[in-house]
């Protein structure tokens, strides 16, 4: 039996696209490859007439179904796996250097999990803040000139996803934790680690970036995220109780060391 990517579980997300024409062209590219869920976040200009002009009548249904959000975190909340596209390599960006490799990985993953493929703005791409929501990154190889038109990038990724197939039986893939569940886990984990002084309170995001990359490599399920959140809540509860029991007029604990 030949299996491929589950198209209905794939969404294309455009983060801060600047021009309506690029939104329309992206919708057309998606329609060419059989993908229909398009999400637009904080567009620079929203002009539906200009969007439809480039989408053409054939992709009208994709335009009709566009979901719009003001912030990326809200747009990605229901997804179990998020892939960011980037032209930049090296540094702290662990990047898959082939869309074909990504497509192969998503054959199994997309069977039971909603997957978002995120594209950044035409001039800046995805920022480091955007990338913290991504489980992995993919790069479209180019020669010399790395900049691609937004709709061209969407077409390349969608083509690779549409043509990826495998003949062996599909592997079991669990339902992964959604992005909103992970974000709440990171919030509680940050608070607990700041409270026990494992990370510096003045710049917790810097210290948490390594933990985010570590957890991004793990296919965390909802129940596992719940366990981590429960541990964090217990740390905070116990810390607050010890502070209240050990303080004298709210000053110090029994051993003379303040908890926060």
UniProtKB/TrEMBL annotation:
Catalyzes the formation of 2'O-methylated cytidine (Cm32) or 2'O-methylated uridine (Um32) at position 32 in tRNA. Its EC number is 2.1.1.200. PANTHER family: TRNA (CYTIDINE_URIDINE-2'-O-)-METHYLTRANSFERASE TRMJ, TRNA/RRNA METHYLTRANSFERASE. The lineage of its organism: Bacteria, Pseudomonadati, Thermodesulfobacteriota, Desulfobacteria, Desulfobacterales. GO terms for molecular function: RNA binding; tRNA (cytidine(32)-2'-O)-methyltransferase activity; tRNA (cytidine(32)/uridine(32)-2'-O)-methyltransferase activity. This is tRNA (cytidine/uridine-2'-O-)-methyltransferase TrmJ. It catalyses: uridine(32) in tRNA + S-adenosyl-L-methionine = 2'-O-methyluridine(32) in tRNA + S-adenosyl-L-homocysteine + H(+); cytidine(32) in tRNA + S-adenosyl-L-methionine = 2'-O-methylcytidine(32) in tRNA + S-adenosyl-L-homocysteine + H(+). Keywords: Cytoplasm, Methyltransferase, S-adenosyl-L-methionine, Transferase, tRNA processing. Homodimer. InterPro entries: Alpha/beta_knot_MTases, RNA_MeTrfase_TrmJ/LasT, SpoU_MeTrfase, tRNA_m1G_MTases_N. It comes from Desulfosarcina widdelii.
